[in-house]
């Protein structure tokens, strides 16, 4: 159990909501599923899950949650995006379909960059600056981070590809850790509160 329990908002329109929820709760924190602007008020950090960035982007724009998340990020609230969530956080998206996005993270990210569903894979990642070895990651129709701005720290690579970055309290992973029930990235993220 965590020393102090935090309240984490998970953007809950589509994608890996349940898997993130389970990890956050197992770490001893409270979860609020965020679907409308009023859901954000008591949250101390936000997770944008993997799934389909066009769908998640559409709903955050339509509901007004996107605007609220931008305000909360400016106020220093930590936000993590995994896979589709990383795309939604990005400033620049390289794709023929550009989903509505928040532009909070100074990266260029290319959607579906490893190929199709069948090209999905598992990998164990090294994150030396967080002292995490062999983080169990799943890459499912994952994007690739092609460029990072000067404020963006690269935390992990898989081969030559950048897979985990941080800019201030904004984190983006091109993979899923929640699908393989590895809580260590969430633990670090929540420590940013
Ligand atoms: N291919 C999806 C997209 O572009 C992301 C896949 C995922 O989140 N696992 O939105």
What does this structure look like?
With 193 residues, the chain is α/β, with parallel strands linked by helices. The chain is 23% helix and 34% strand. The chain has a single domain, classed as Rossmann fold (3-Layer(aba) Sandwich), CATH 3.40.50. The chain has helices spanning 17-26, 53-63, 65-74, 84-89, 184-191; strands at 7-11, 30-34, 45-48, 79-82, 90-94, 105-110, 121-127, 132-139, 144-148, 153-158, 161-167, 170-173. It starts with 6 loop residues before the first strand and ends with a helix. The mean pLDDT is 96. Bound molecules: glutamine (GLN).
Quick structural overview:
Helices cover 23% and strands 34% of the residues.
Short key terms for the protein model shown above:
single chain; 193 residues; alpha/beta; Rossmann fold; seven-stranded mixed beta sheet; three-stranded mixed beta sheet; 5 helices; 12 strands; globular; binds glutamine
Topology record:
Elements lengths: L6 E5 L5 H10 L3 E5 L10 E4 L4 H11 L1 H10 L4 E4 L1 H6 E5 L10 E6 L10 E7 L4 E8 L4 E5 L4 E6 L2 E7 L2 E4 L10 H8 L2
Parallel strand pairs: 1-2, 1-3, 3-4, 4-12, 5-6
Antiparallel strand pairs: 6-9, 7-8, 10-11, 11-12
The chain binds glutamine.
